[in-house]
Amino acid sequence: MSELRSALDALAAEDLHALSDGQVLDRTAELVTLRNRLDAELTRTVRHGELTQAPEHDGIRTMRSWLVGHARLAPTEASRIVRSGRALELFPALAAGFAEGAVTAAQMDVVASKIGSVELAKAAGQGIDLAPFDEAWTTVAAEASHQTLVAAVQAFEDALDPDGPEPDPTEGRRLSIAKHADGTVTGRFDLDAVGGEKVQAAIESIVQADRPKGDERTRAQQNADAFVQLCDNQLAGGSLPTLRTVKPHVVVTVDLEDLVDFGAGPDAARTGFGATLSAARARWVACDSTITRIGLGPDRLPLDVGRTHRVVLPHLRKAVENRDGHCVFAGCGAPTHWCDVHHLVEWVNGGETSLDNSALLCERHHTKVHHGFRVQRDDGAPPGHRWRTWRPDGTEILIDHRCSELLPEVRPGRSGGR
């Protein structure tokens, strides 16, 4: 182990800037092989620890729990290592390729996660020798793409029971959501082919409908924005099941002092699921929401609850949608059903909830406007009656003045940036 640490220290000390592009790629390939070998040795050691009940030494029942608690691995990663360890003796050719560095940990798990006790029992009952498949999968893993191995293992699994009942797609669906200390959320889901197709079709429809000019978001960011928009549309539609007599909605609790203050106010608000928001973010949510005033006593216990009222009533929203047609931020044309009604002068600071004080903004640009950007309606002489946008430094965002001087305002279609 000390020699291994010394070798890693020497690698970390190398000057990568002295390498040519080819040398960088060769070094990367060699490191991948070495990483595979280390993963294989870790997997072999974990399997040995499981067989010898080594975690009992630290008062832990399983190696998975020890990896999560002592090695601080994610539960899914710990499960993968334990699962792969159990497959080592079942597939010796694959295990050898893993130890040599030709097979990755992910490839090992492709087989380990698909060929379990149920599949092994079926193979034994049908007199199927696993050795040829072990050899073939090892070759595929070393020479073909990851997806090719996935397909090969899936074909074997399907062949074990070609005439069996069609599996229930819901049995294999999983969705896990983890909330972090700062309120951000990460998650993972596993879906059957049809369920995955539905999710991809829904998200893709929103991604392809929201492609503004100059968009520098990665595909992953576009997918995430589309997923949030999909949920936003469902919440706004009002057709989701009620929760304890209340329609599902986003709940934000914030003190009045933080709401009226123009400062950022970190950790000033709390959401229904326990996340904390800044006061600026709470004001962003409050622009187009339902407000309930709750009076608290010195001990922070509620003394009275005021009447709940909608900040932007339905008839006003319809008027704003009719006038603006889409998000009014320069270069955007997000449709009305993706937008909030923003108060130019915030209602909590005395701004009227009126047509003149309202603007239609999509989520991304609503956030921008609450963090330094500004939109204002130009009601002057022609070519007036248009929205103008300014950056935080006071400069105006101009898309194309020549066209703006010649063309009438376009609504309710999309902007030229789409």
UniProtKB/TrEMBL annotation:
SMART domains this protein is in?
A: HNHc (SM00507)
Q: Name one Pfam family in it.
A: DUF222
Family under the similarity heading: Belongs to the Rv1128c/1148c/1588c/1702c/1945/3466 family.
MF terms (GO), sorted A to Z: endonuclease activity; nucleic acid binding; zinc ion binding
- InterPro entries, per database record: DUF222, HNH, HNH_nuc
HNH nuclease domain residues: 315-367
* Lineage: superkingdom: Bacteria
Give the protein name, as stated in the record: DUF222 domain-containing protein
